[in-house]
Design a protein that fits this description.
With 91 residues, the protein is of the alpha+beta class. 35% of the residues lie in helices and 13% in strands. Helix 1 links the parallel strand 1 and strand 2.
Length: 91
């Protein structure tokens, strides 16, 4: 894990991990979650290996939240993916 002892002494580099559509959303394809997780972990590893200090995780082009509600499946999947690198041995 990186620490921020150098904060203010050098520029912080942040990356972006783009997720495919998640369960409970309009464009989610049944059975694609494991591939989404694996891709997110690979992206996190590449950013870390490249020297990034952290990353934002997000989806794009999602049309969720029908009627002002956030789908439980989407939130659970998002949180599961964010913990993916730690489970798979990444820093």
């Amino acid at each position: 894990m990186r620490d921020f002892a150098t904060l203010g002494k050098r520029k912080v580099v942040l990356g972006m991990i783009h997720l495919q559509p998640l369960p409970g959303t309009l464009f989610y394809k049944d059975g694609s979650f494991n591939q989404t997780l694996d891709t997110a972990v690979q992206s996190a590893r590449a950013l870390y290996d490249g020297g990034a200090d952290g990353a934002f995780v997000g989806t794009c082009l999602e049309r969720g939240g029908w009627g002002g509600q956030i789908e439980v499946e989407r939130v659970k999947a998002y949180l599961f993916i964010e913990r993916g690198p730690a489970r798979k041995g990444s820093a």
